[in-house]
Amino acid sequence: MEHLFGQEWEITPAGGVTGKAYFARCGGQQLFLKKNSSPFLAVLSAEGIVPKLIWTKRLENGDVVSAQHWLEGRELKPHEMVKSRVAQLMCKIHSSQPLLSMLERIGIKPSSPEMIMKEIQIRLDEDTLKHREVLSSLQFLQENMAKVNHNHYVVCHGDVNHNNWLLSKENELFLIDWDGAMIGDPAIDLGMLLYKYIDKSEWQAWLSDYGLTFTPNLQLRMKWYVIAQMLLSIQWDKETNRLLEMEAGLTDLTKFLL
């Protein structure tokens, strides 16, 4: 990475699960670099959903490095997820035809309930299946899979945790870390966001800011997808020895099933 810049630049890892992100600093200039990011990043930048993309370069070894403006800012706090601007940015993402067209062009297929259920059945191991909450969740998913089919597919982020929402010092809001982007029911994002961060008494108002009416069908779809996502997350926490997070996930499953 260092040979892209002069010796006066300081290149440091930016952390994250993939290890492909870096900070580049020189004097007052700062960039956020990422290896082998999807061409989807350019459309996200053009739509104003992520910080501005400055350039993309291909290295001799075939790696592609992208550089974005590094913005001073902070992650949203959990209690801030109720704000109307979060709902409005989520709506903008789900309504974006350029985002959808780009994912389709790079070969992303819609994630149907059947596909997600198949992934869960493949991924969950014997130890995870011993938990009562997991078995109850699987029963709920199987019993309701036919009821959650939805023919309006959009671009979903797939990981709308508060730490992926960036508020800049200029008061601009961005949703970052798009490695798990998919095409699917908007309830994939909405369910995780509402169940995790927003009191049920405020769901109707939040969804009104988003542009939807809260209906029993939407509630069922959100519940189905949030439980599906939690099962995959619990299995990943187990595989990566994040046992405290796994226990918290099992507790959340019990609440979400109510």
From TrEMBL:
Mind telling me which InterPro entries this protein's record contains? Aminoglycoside_PTrfase, CcrZ_PhaseVar_Mediator, Kinase-like_dom_sf
Q: What are the Aminoglycoside phosphotransferase domain coordinates in residue numbering? A: 39-212
Pfam families hit by this protein: APH
* Domain of life assignment: Bacteria
Q: Which named protein is this?
A: Phosphotransferase family protein
Output the lineage of the source organism: Bacteria, Bacillati, Bacillota, Bacilli, Bacillales
